[in-house]
Amino acid sequence: MTIRYAMEPELGVDEFVDVLRRSTLAERRPVDDLERIAGMLENASVVVTARDETGLLVGVSRAISDFHYCTYLSDLAVDRAFQRQGIGKELVTRTHIAGGFHTSLILLAAPAAASYYPHIGMQPHGSCWIVPRR
Predict the structure, then answer these.
(1) Does the predicted model carry a pTM greater than 0.85?
(2) Which of the four pLDDT bands, split at 50, 70 and 90, describes residue 103?
(3) CA distance 43 to 63
(4) Among positive and negative, which fits the CA dihedral 41, 42, 46, 50?
(5) Which of 116, 123, 39, 133 is nearest to 77 (CA)?
């Protein structure tokens, strides 16, 4: 199976939500608030996609970067039927390339995915602080 990767800054809301639903990420994203999803896509610095040979979107990464110091990988989703094929790792690599290898790539892992990231070479960081959404 051939997977085609591309930068897709104009990725549509419907396709994005569809792949979020086919991954486990929809559980933690506002997929029923299409206006918010549209804003998430419009304001992303980097959107990298993975498509199968039919053109079906099977993976996506969405990041915010200053392109000088840090790149925050805010969404990484791979269709459950396409997981364990290296697609997520390739999306992470291509996102980091787009943001610049001279930037730190930062990601907050979902609890269910926390064991995945060391497997692809990411290092844990012992300190993260957030102010939750209101």
Answers:
(1) yes
(2) very high
(3) 9
(4) positive
(5) 116
**Distance (Å, whole) CA 96 – CA 98:** 5
Question: Which residues, other chains included, contact 103 with Cβ-Cβ below 8 Å and sequence gap of 6+?
Answer: 65, 66, 67, 68, 69, 70, 71, 96
Identity at 98, one-letter amino acid code? A
3-state SS, residue 1: coil
Mean pLDDT of the chain: 92
Domains annotated on the chain, with CATH? 4-119 (3.40.630.30)
Closest of 59, 68, 63 to residue 45, by C-alpha: 63
CB 60 within 8 Å of CB 17:
no
For the stretch 26-46, pLDDT in tens is: 889 999 999 999 999 999 999
Q: Which of 73, 79, 110 is nearest to 92 (CA)?
A: 73
